[in-house]
Each structure stands twice: as C-alpha cells, then as structure tokens.
Automatic annotation (TrEMBL):
Protein name: Glutamate-1-semialdehyde 2,1-aminomutase
Gene Ontology cellular-component terms listed: cytoplasm
Gene encoding the protein: hemL
Protein source organism: Dialister succinatiphilus YIT 11850
CC cofactor: pyridoxal 5'-phosphate
PTM sites of type N6-(pyridoxal phosphate)lysine: 268
InterPro entries: 4pyrrol_synth_GluAld_NH2Trfase, Aminotrans_3, PyrdxlP-dep_Trfase, PyrdxlP-dep_Trfase_major, PyrdxlP-dep_Trfase_small
Class in the EC hierarchy, top level: isomerase
This protein's record includes keyword Lipid biosynthesis: no
Pfam families assigned: Aminotran_3
EC code: 5.4.3.8
Swiss-Prot/TrEMBL catalytic activity: (S)-4-amino-5-oxopentanoate = 5-aminolevulinate
Predominant subcellular localization, coarse grouping: cytoplasm
GO MF annotations, alphabetized: glutamate-1-semialdehyde 2,1-aminomutase activity; pyridoxal phosphate binding; transaminase activity
Family membership: Belongs to the class-III pyridoxal-phosphate-dependent aminotransferase family. HemL subfamily.
C-alpha cells in the first residue's frame, strides 16, 4: 500500500472548509475507499503528492495537459506574460492571434468569444442559439456532460453521474422542461424527437465523442443524422469539443467525422492548463452576441493574458511537431493493447475505447454505446483495478465515468510500466 498519511490529514482539514474537501466533486475520490492524493507538483508525465509518492499521470488535469506538466516553453511564456501584469480587462493583440489560430484549425469557427471555463462556453453558446433562433428548447444526450449550467444538468454525465445525481437538485422545473434528452448514439430516438419537436428546438448540443460516461465514440451515421435533422429544422448544431477538441484529431471530432457544426465549444487545451475556453461558429450566429447583437455575455477575466499566452504556446508546440495527434493516438493504442492483453490473461471481460488521445475502459462483456450501457459496467471491478493501479503508482481518474488522457510527455517506458501494473490490477479485478 502506498503511504497517504499526509494526504489523509490534509483531506480531513479541507473537509472542514470545503464541501467534500474539494473544489470539484470527483477530486474527492468518491466510493474509492482511499483519500485523494493531495498534489505537490507535476512534471512531464509524472505527478507527485504531498506524501512524496510519484505516479504516472493519465488524468492530465482532466485533459488540458496534452504536452505534459510544466512544459518549459509554456511555463516560460506564462512567466514573461505575468511580468507585464496578470490582467488588463482590455483588448490585446494576442486575443486576435488565438482567434485566428483557432479559426485556422477549426474553419467552422468563423468568429469566437473567449470565456473562462467549458461551462461558460456551453452556457453562452446555448444562449446565442436561443437568441438567434428565437426558440426556447434545447436537446442534449443522456450521459453527455457540458459543464454545470442549469439547463445542462439534466441527465448529465461526469461527476453528476458518479454521484448519482445526473439531474441536479437546485435546477428549477421551468428550466429543466426546456431541456429535451435522447440516448446517445440512438438515431431513431433522435429523429423521432426532431420530427415531433424540431421546430421548437433552438440547439442540439452534443459531445461528438462522448467523454463523460467514460469514452464513447459516435456510431456510424449518428453525427450525420444530427447534421441532417438540425439543418432540416433550422436548429443550431453545437459540437461541445471542450474535451475531444485537439485530441480526437488536432482539428477535432468535426474533422475526423467530416461534419461541420454551426457552433463549437472549446476549452481545456486552449488554456494550456490555465482557465480559458471559447465558443464560436458561424458568423451570422456570433453576430448576435453583444455588443454587435442583443445576446448578452461578458467576463472580467475573459481573454486573460496569462491564459491566452499559455493556450497559444500550447497550440504552437503541438503544431511544431509533425503528426502530433497521430503520435499520441499510437501511444494510446499501445497502452490499450497491453491493458486488453492483461485483462484477457486474467479472464476479465474488458471493452477498450479510444478516440485519438482520449481513452477509457469498461468492465463489461458487451460493447458500450450509451449511458445505460456505461452504467451496466462492473463498478466493483473498476474499484479493485483503480486501487491496484494507484498502489502501483499509476494515477487514473477515480470514477468509471471519466475518460483518461495521453500526453506527449508519456514515454515508451511509462507505457510499458503502466502495462506491467495492469497485469496485477486485472488479477485484482478478477478476484471481485
Ligand atoms: N464540456 C465538456 C465536454 C467537458 O468535458 C467539460 C468538463 N470536463 C465541460 C464542458 C465543462 O468544462 P469546465 O469544467 O471547464 O467548466
């Protein structure tokens, strides 16, 4: 067993002052039977806790750390920017630079607005879609998570699923009634809902690769059906690529699946580990945003110079390495191949999913296509696996509903070590 004495004490102290002792629920290690390691520092592919345990990190701050932690060029750029002040609340040239850069990588984003979190990006995109169409209803998919905006905390994934509250208390009935929900990957159910209500729906919002019920890629034809039906009904199609952006491919899921959404939400990687996100899309929709239009949305720290600097530097570093996304995809594939072999050896049924450098596993005999399937996976086996991996210094997300992330900093040696650890962890899972 690893020693978590200091983390345990820190957690007890934190619980006195913060709900669950944390600033985001899944960090509290729900149902995992051990305190969360409190983190001291992280470099490259490794993260170290206050007890001095160092782990190979596949959480990567839940996605942003695609270059690995404390990347020297990113840190240097942030330091230089900080010397010029941490915030101006006024326009800077670098905001146009990042918007141009994002437009190059995501041509469907003709205009964009920066915000501070993925939550703000999706909330604001929905408001824009409602303002643009003059309609109230939105449609989301069960098990997708789009941040904690009221209208999106309906049948939500991620921590909301982990804690058994996909429909959050505190969301009014009035708000929830405007959110229609359909199972992910269910083309007939979606088409039926659009036939019945399409003309009242302002926006369909989707994670084109779902990453908040673990990793669930779209089935063939699903995203095409979304595009076709939304076009038919004049509904805005929003791809929430906060997680899968720059990971499924560098150009996002929209490039992998050749679907052009009307709007896109980005986050995580575009802040290089600092709080930044963005929403954007077709010019005529974005022209509805204040001050050009009457949809109000603003932010004291939006376009913050440190976050924008970190984002630009992260994107430039990624762009400087030919086939960056393919390299990460290959590393991820190697890792999952090893995990699957470990599971087979131990006689544990395992489903492995990957989309570029996002990945996840389900302790399940049958494939996982939606939230219902994800919930049917074996939670006890997941817990045994998770604890064994942690004890072998492999840092994974402490919930079966979360995706894992590969970074450029993960070496072949890291991957080999992680596969070796999986041999033992799968044996532990087999005992459950
Ligand atoms: N959309 C998606 C797809 C996400 O995965 C997340 C967070 N994991 C969000 C939105 C919300 O982002 P944030 O936590 O930055 O508010």
């Amino acid at each position: 067993m690893i020693d978590l004495t200091k983390s345990k004490a820190a957690f007890e102290e934190a619980k006195k002052y913060m709900p669950g002792g944390v600033n985001s629920p899944v960090r509290s290690y729900p149902h995992m039977g051990c305190p969360p390691p409190f983190i001291q520092e992280a470099h490259g592919s490794h993260i170290t806790d206050i007890d001095g345990n160092t782990y190979i990190d596949y959480v990567g701050s839940w996605g942003p750390m695609v270059l690995g932690h404390a990347h020297p060029a990113v840190i240097k750029a942030i330091q230089k920017a900080a010397e010029r002040s941490t915030s101006y609340g006024a326009p800077t040239v670098m905001e146009t630079e990042i918007a141009e850069l994002i437009h190059q990588v995501y041509p469907s984003i003709e205009k964009m607005r920066m915000v501070n979190s993925g939550t703000e990006a999706t909330m604001s995109a929905l408001r824009a879609a409602r303002g643009y169409t003059g309609r109230d209803k939105i449609l989301k998919f069960e098990g997708c998570y789009h941040g904690h905006g009221d209208s999106l905390l309906v049948k939500a994934g991620s921590g909301a699923a982990t804690f058994g509250s996909p429909d959050s208390a505190g969301v009014t009935k009035g708000t929830a009634k405007d959110t229609l929900v359909v199972p992910y990957n269910d083309i007939p159910a979606f088409t039926k809902m659009m036939d019945e209500k399409g003309d009242e729906i302002a926006a369909v919002i989707v994670e084109p690769v779902a990453g908040n019920m673990c990793c669930v890629p779209p089935v063939e034809g699903f995203l095409e059906a979304l595009r076709k039906e939304t076009e038919k009904h004049g509904t805005v199609l929003i791809f929430d690529e906060v997680m899968c952006g720059f990971r499924t491919t560098f150009h996002g899921a929209q490039a992998r699946y050749h679907i052009h959404p009307d709007m896109t939400c980005l986050g995580k990687i575009i802040g290089g580990g600092l709080p930044a996100a963005a929403y954007g899309g077709r010019r005529e929709i974005m022209n509805c945003i204040a001050p050009d239009g009457s949809v109000y949305q603003a932010g004291t720290l939006s376009g913050n110079p440190l976050a924008v600097t970190a984002g630009i530097e992260t994107l430039k570093q990624m762009m400087a390495i030919p086939d960056f996304d393919k390299i990460l995809e290959k590393k991820t594939k190697d890792l999952l191949t090893g995990w699957k072999q470990a599971a087979d050896k131990a006689g544990v049924p395992l489903v492995c999913h990957q989309s570029g450098s996002m990945f996840g596993i389900f302790f399940s005999e049958k494939d996982v296509l939606n939230y219902h399937d994800a919930c049917s996976a074996n939670a006890a086996q997941f817990k045994a696996w998770f604890l064994s991996m942690l004890n072998q210094h492999i840092y994974l997300a402490p919930s079966p509903f979360e995706t894992l992330f590969m970074s450029y900093a993960h070496s072949d040696e890291d991957i080999e070590k992680t596969i070796q650890a999986a041999d033992k962890a799968m044996e532990e899972a087999a005992k459950v």
